[in-house]
């Protein structure tokens, strides 16, 4: 069993860049009681708001981030992308991009896939929320294009991380969902009579298709389901659970 005890884990793909701050939260180190135990940072859960606020403070503080520097959105499983000019809470976006230092972009997950991107050439970042709907809508490819349009980002200079989400063996779907995925990212389980979808692989493929070298893409080794002790899973906990966040931003090089 993989056991994590920290409030966060740092994607190795970004570690060479001292100006970048990027992390995923775990479910450890917070104050929320069951079933949100313990580091629930989800703003739209039925946990007490003061618990969530303290949990978020702890998580961001562990990274040297002030909550006033954080940008987030109420996600709707769509493909809208917001260019962030100031921190705050927004509505209806599933991807955030910025080239502003000291602005830290977040996405909230509990089985869906978080994707973080850093453009080392133009100094820009992106945080993307991709459930199956966002993946089918190709939100990752659209975000890479938006970074190019807005900031002149070149995919060859970008580094990306596909974060912790539901694993393929746990993500059973029916024909109507499976038919929207490429053959390479689904498998039919005869015993269960269900298709199994690999969200990580599907989003890695989009990053590579968008031009980011595969060698510059990191992938979380964890699953929200099989490592449920360390991460929240909406599916296995039947919706009555907390949320994690993935965050990315940068400070100017000194």
Automatic annotation (TrEMBL):
Q: What is this protein called?
A: Purine nucleoside phosphorylase
Q: Which reaction does it catalyse?
A: S-methyl-5'-thioadenosine + phosphate = 5-(methylsulfanyl)-alpha-D-ribose 1-phosphate + adenine; adenosine + H2O + H(+) = inosine + NH4(+); adenosine + phosphate = alpha-D-ribose 1-phosphate + adenine; inosine + phosphate = alpha-D-ribose 1-phosphate + hypoxanthine
Which superkingdom heads the taxonomic lineage of this protein's source? Answer: Bacteria
TM region positions: none
* Leader peptide range in chain numbering: none
Q: Which residues form a coiled coil?
A: none
The record's annotation in PANTHER family points to: PURINE NUCLEOSIDE PHOSPHORYLASE LACC1 (PTHR30616:SF2), UNCHARACTERIZED PROTEIN YFIH (PTHR30616)
What keywords would UniProt list here?
Answer: Hydrolase, Metal-binding, Transferase, Zinc
- Single GO term (MF): S-methyl-5-thioadenosine phosphorylase activity
Q: Tell me one Pfam family matched here.
A: Cu-oxidase_4
Q: Which family does it belong to?
A: Belongs to the purine nucleoside phosphorylase YfiH/LACC1 family.
Which organism's genome codes for this protein? Larkinella punicea
Q: Does the keyword RNA-binding apply?
A: no
Q: Which InterPro entries match?
A: Cu_polyphenol_OxRdtase, Cu_polyphenol_OxRdtase_sf, Cytotoxic_necrot_fac-like_cat
């Amino acid at each position: 069993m993989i056991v994590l005890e920290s409030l966060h884990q740092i994607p190795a793909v970004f570690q060479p860049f001292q100006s970048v701050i990027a992390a995923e939260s775990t479910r450890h180190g917070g104050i929320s009681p069951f079933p949100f135990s313990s580091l629930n940072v989800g703003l739209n859960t039925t946990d007490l708001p003061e618990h969530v606020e303290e949990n978020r403070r702890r998580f961001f503080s562990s990274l040297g981030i002030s909550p006033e520097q954080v940008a987030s959105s109420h996600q709707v499983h769509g493909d809208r992308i917001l260019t962030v000019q100031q921190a705050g809470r927004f509505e209806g976006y599933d991807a955030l991009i910025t080239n502003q230092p000291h602005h830290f972009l977040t996405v909230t997950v509990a089985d869906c896939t978080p994707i973080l991107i850093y453009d080392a050439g133009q100094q820009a970042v992106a945080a993307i929320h991709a459930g199956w709907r966002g993946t089918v809508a190709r939100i990752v490819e659209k975000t890479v294009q938006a970074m190019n349009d807005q900031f002149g980002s070149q995919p060859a200079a970008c580094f990306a991380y596909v974060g912790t989400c539901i694993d393929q063996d746990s993500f059973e779907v029916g024909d109507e969902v499976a038919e929207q995925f490429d053959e390479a990212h689904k498998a039919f389980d005869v015993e269960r009579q269900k298709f199994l979808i690999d969200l990580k692989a599907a989003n890695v493929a989009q990053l590579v298709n968008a031009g980011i070298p595969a060698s510059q893409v990191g992938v979380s080794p964890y699953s929200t389901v099989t490592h449920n002790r360390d991460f929240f899973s909406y599916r296995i906990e039947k919706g009555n659970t907390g949320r994690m966040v993935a965050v990315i931003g940068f400070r100017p090089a000194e």
